[in-house]
Design goal:
binds methionine sulfoxide, GAF domain-containing protein, alpha+beta, 4 helices, Beta-Lactamase, single chain
Length: 168
């Protein structure tokens, strides 16, 4: 691992510290989503919570599927590319593969779409609707190489599940 979380409340960078962060985030997110089903409002608060809690991010946000394209949704960070075709970039590949993708080095990912030249690593998690179909993705970018691991992929997926429950 090439970075530390020494500027956060979660202490040194260990899988347990990462896990503790997601254990803290879940009830906070549940509070934000409680009683609300509006997808724009909920995904806006979701990205704000994650972006302002997780160290080492430069972008966190949603793309939602419209036809065969992902279209930019609520996010935190610099302005980003608006439309991504299914199968393109990390986001579009996540839709086609149907599972989370961790990219330790975006320069080594063929077809990566560079919205921010500072991004070095990326994690994209699919978002599913009530019938199990993918309706979008949640994308996290970091200026740090190798920022995301399986603990992050599982942790973010556990948060996405809470958002998915509001779509039922
Ligand atoms: N890097 C992404 C595009 C979205 S931005 O990073 C916000 C990709 O390759 O799909």
């Amino acid at each position: 691992m090439t970075f530390t979380l020494n500027d956060t409340a979660y202490g040194t960078d260990t899988p347990a510290a990462r896990q503790a962060m997601y254990d803290d985030l879940r009830p906070q997110l549940q509070g934000l989503l409680h009683g609300e089903t509006d997808l724009i409002a909920n995904s806006a608060n979701f990205s704000a919570l994650v972006f302002n809690t997780m160290p080492g991010l430069n972008w966190a946000g949603f793309y939602f599927l419209k036809g065969d394209e992902l279209v930019l949704g609520p996010f935190q960070g610099k302005p980003a590319c608006i439309r991504i075709k299914k199968g393109r970039g990390v986001c579009g590949s996540t839709v086609v593969e149907g599972k989370a993708i961790v990219v330790p080095d975006v320069h080594a990912f063929p077809g990566h779409i560079a919205c921010d030249v500072n991004s070095r690593s990326e994690l994209v998690v699919p978002v599913r609707g009530p019938n199990g179909d993918i309706v979008g993705v949640f994308d996290l970018d970091s200026p740090l190489p190798n920022r995301f691991d399986q603990t992050d992929a599982d942790g973010i997926a556990s948060l996405v599940k809470l958002l998915e429950a509001t779509l039922a």
